[in-house]
Amino acid sequence: MTSSVNRSRTDRSNTQMSVLGYLIAAPIVLMILPVLPALGLLWIGDKISPE
User: Fold this and answer.
1) How far separated are the first and last CA of the chain, in Å rounded?
2) Does residue 5 form part of some domain?
3) How many independent structural domains does the chain possess?
4) What is the dihedral of CA 12, 13, 17, 19, to 10 degrees?
């Protein structure tokens, strides 16, 4: 049984993996956007409240 490790090619970009990454990241960002104002209010409330 032989095993080989091929060197990765650096002379070209991996466009398919980049597109896949963007397709996965876009819905995550869109789901987080509506929550950001509430998180901001909670953070501000925590900063101004006495401890």
Assistant:
1) 65
2) no
3) 1
4) -130
- CA-CA distance, 46 to 19, in Å (whole number)? 39
The owner of tokens 């650096």 is 10
Whole-model pTM? 0.52
Distance between CA atoms of 34 and 25, rounded to whole angstroms?
A: 15
Is 35 part of any domain?
yes
Q: Which tokens in the block code for residue 35?
A: 């929550």
Length of the chain: 51
pLDDT digit string, tens, across residues 1-51: 667 777 766 666 788 899 999 999 999 999 999 999 999 999 999 999 876
Phi/psi at 30 (5° precision): -65, -30
Domain range enclosing 38: 15-48
